[in-house]
Amino acid sequence: MTTLAATMDRVATATGFSGVVRVDVAGETVLERAWGLADRAYGVSMTPATRIGVASGAKPLTALAVMRLVEDGVLSLGTRAREVLGADLPLVDDAVTVEHLLSHRSGIGDYLDEDDQDDMLAYVMPVPVHRLDAAESYLPALDGHPQVFAPGTGFAYCNGGFCVLALIAERVSGVRFQELVRQQVIEPSGLTATAYLRSDQLPGDAARGYLDDGPRTNVLHLPVVGGGDGGVYTTAADVHAFWTALDGGRPVTPGTRDEMWRSRGFLDRTDRLDGYGLGFWRWGDAVVLEGYDAGASFRSAHLPGRASWSVLSNTTEGAWPVAAALDAVLTDGSGRPGRDAPLDVR
After folding, report:
1. Domain extent listing, the chain
2. How many CA atoms lie within 13 A of 166 on its CB side?
3. Which of 79, 131, 183, 334 is the most exposed place for a label (fewest CB within 10 A)?
């Protein structure tokens, strides 16, 4: 019988994978391996402790920071964005609420519409990336995009909506967004390596993001500091700690967590993700984090109270074949993570 470790090593070697894979089942870490280089220029090897950018895998942190403010009574799911935005972003419909933004049902025009991206390696940011270092700095990029549909009448994945959430959270709390996430989410969840690092001054334990097989990094493709829609750096161990914290009722109460994990309906998507809650994807009985950008690909699936498996890569496409192979081993015969999936980790 082929072991899980052997299967992952075969797929990682065959695809030239650069990143980290971790699998935890019933409280036991059954696999944690690293492949490739964190820094190609200096030949620094990837390790399980390497911090890797997870792109939109950071959206749940934004959602949790917002929901902490909801629990504290500073915001409500029914708070209208206009109440906080004032005269800013006038094309955002006056009826858009915090809940609409969290569930990708706001209908606002997106500054970075992934459905229109044919080339993930293109320079797609509408303003110089070095200027995008704080929630307020996104205002010029978010402005000028007409409403796509009436709030609450459809679903459209919207990066801009989470940037608006960061702006709202920062304004009502009086705390810089990245610091707010650290105080309200990262520290209460026990995450020791997760942070919004500057891409132009990464520390030695962080992986550079690579566009392809060569030496070019993604430093000119993404905001210099991650914001509401993504860009945090983390480790495989912290991703597992994140799931463990949520199972244990941190950083939000179990009731709030369950509401965030509740799917807002079926999504007509071509991939296997079949629902979305408030900041979290749903796939069968699993809750999923996913990120995809120039020099970053990430997927983590979690069966609450039972198992989690994660793939973090510092290349644009690297995570997907490894994640597909991992899913095939850890899901049931239907290819979906059901509560009774065998989780074959031999």
Report:
1. 4-330
2. 30
3. 334
∠288-13-52 over CA atoms, to 5°? 45
The whole-angstrom separation of Cα 282 and Cα 249 is 19
In the structure encoding, which two tokens stand for residue 303, read together?
A: 């069966």
Segments of the chain scoring below 50 in pLDDT: 1
Query: String of b and e for 225-263 (b: at least 16 CB within 10 Å)?
Result: bbbbbbbbbbbbbbbbbbbbbbeeebbbeeebbebbbeb
CA separation for the pair 60, 279 (Å, rounded): 5
Yes or no: say if 292 and 56 are a contact pair by the CB < 8 Å rule: yes
At position 185, the amino acid (one-letter code) is V
Residue 282, strand partner residues: 275, 287
Determine contact, residues 48/33, Cβ cutoff 8 Å. Answer: yes
Q: Kindly state the helix (H) or strand (E) to which residue 330 belongs, with its residue range.
A: helix 319-330
Using an 8 Å Cβ cutoff, are 96 and 82 in contact? Answer: yes
Does pTM top 0.70 for this prediction?
yes
Are residues 211 and 316 in contact, defined by beta-carbon separation less than 8 angstroms?
A: yes
Q: Residue 1: what pLDDT?
A: 39
Are 251 and 181 contacting, i.e. CB atoms less than 8 angstroms apart?
A: no
Residues 118, 127: Cα–Cα separation, whole Å: 19
Burial class (CB in 10 A: 0-12, 13-18, 19+), 191: buried
Spatial distance between the Cα atoms of 169 and 62, rounded to a whole number of angstroms: 9
Instruction: Provide the pLDDT for residue 343.
Output: 59
Q: How many CB atoms lie within 10 A of CB 199?
A: 24
CA separation for the pair 24, 129 (Å, rounded):
37
- Kindly give, in sequence order, each residue whose CB lies less than 8 Å from that of residue 298, ignoring residues fewer than 6 positions away: 52, 54, 55, 57, 289, 290, 291, 292, 310, 311, 312, 313, 319
